[in-house]
Amino acid sequence: MINKILIMCGGRGKRLGRLTEEMPKPLMKIGEKTILERKIRSYVNHGFNDFILCVGYKGDLIRKAVEEFGISCNFEFSDAGEPSGILKRLYMAKDLFEEKVILSYGDTYTDIDLLKLANVHIKSDNEATIVVAPIQNPFGLVDFDRNGKVTYFKEKPILNYYIGYAVINKAAIELVPRGVIDMSDGDGLVAFYKILVAMEKLGTFYHTGIQITFNTEEEFQNMQGKIADFYTSRDVI
């Protein structure tokens, strides 16, 4: 049984410019609620009540906001420092969970069935199971040879992307080399996943439902509309 969700809330969100000068990305509002509150309430609806929040940039605002959500759950906080990458934040929080944990990025919203995700991982022999989703590339992809002749062309292909959700075994995290743990941003996590690929211990969970994330102001505005459409079509808090 996996009963804890670890939410990454420590990033700076530099590509959002002025929008994150005074607040971290998870506290940006989608309608009347922050994306973090929407995520947590969705997880509670799935039956989860124990959360680990990995803070960093303006972590004091995350702590204060969680208190003001008024959600009766168990919240624990881990602060690996503002410059830390994703893997280091995960590594520094490992003593707060037992054998396995569900990982969720604080700026990504989905309607994933978390219980199904957890069960798929538990039944496998994988050290981690990452969530992937089909996303249409907006450009045509082209390969060409040394003479400049096109050998492959595909217009706007649908590709499978990692969307910031995973189930990870604590034992695997504890074996990661220190040099990998200390890598910046998401490089360490990618290196960790590549290690598991080489070991044939990285699995996937395929998600075709809603999945929304944002890294720029334009993407944030688009996300507003997508979330609004989602909540007007479903009875979700």
CATH class (first level) name: Alpha Beta
Work out the radius of gyration: 18 Å
- DSSP helix fraction: 25-40%
Strand line-up in the sheet with most strands: 5-4-1-6-11-8-12
Which fold name is given in CATH as the topology?
Spore Coat Polysaccharide Biosynthesis Protein SpsA, Chain A
Number of strands: 13
**Secondary-structure element string:** EEEHEHEHEEHEEEEHHHEEH
Q: Give the structural class.
A: alpha/beta
List keywords for this structure.
8 helices; two-stranded antiparallel sheet; 237 residues; 7-stranded mixed β-sheet; Spore Coat Polysaccharide Biosynthesis Protein SpsA, Chain A; alpha/beta
What this model shows, in words?
This protein has 237 residues and is of the alpha/beta class. The chain has a single domain (4-129, 162-233), classed as Spore Coat Polysaccharide Biosynthesis Protein SpsA, Chain A, CATH 3.90.550.10. The protein is built from 8 helices and 13 strands. Strand 2 (29-30) and strand 3 form a beta hairpin. Mean pLDDT is 87; it is low at 231-237.
Briefly say what this structure is.
The chain is an alpha/beta fold and 237 residues long. The chain has helices spanning 35-45, 59-69, 86-92, 114-123, 170-174, 178-181, 187-198, 217-233; strands at residues 4-9, 29-30, 33-34, 50-55, 74-79, 100-105, 108-110, 128-136, 141-144, 150-154, 158-169, 202-206, 211-213. The strands form 4 sheets. Strands 5-4-1-6-11-8-12 form a 7-stranded mixed beta sheet, sandwiched between helices.
Task: Give the helices and strands, then pairings.
Elements: E1 4-9, E2 29-30, E3 33-34, H1 35-45, E4 50-55, H2 59-69, E5 74-79, H3 86-92, E6 100-105, E7 108-110, H4 114-123, E8 128-136, E9 141-144, E10 150-154, E11 158-169, H5 170-174, H6 178-181, H7 187-198, E12 202-206, E13 211-213, H8 217-233
Parallel strand pairs: 1-4, 1-6, 4-5, 8-12
Antiparallel strand pairs: 2-3, 6-11, 7-13, 8-11, 9-10
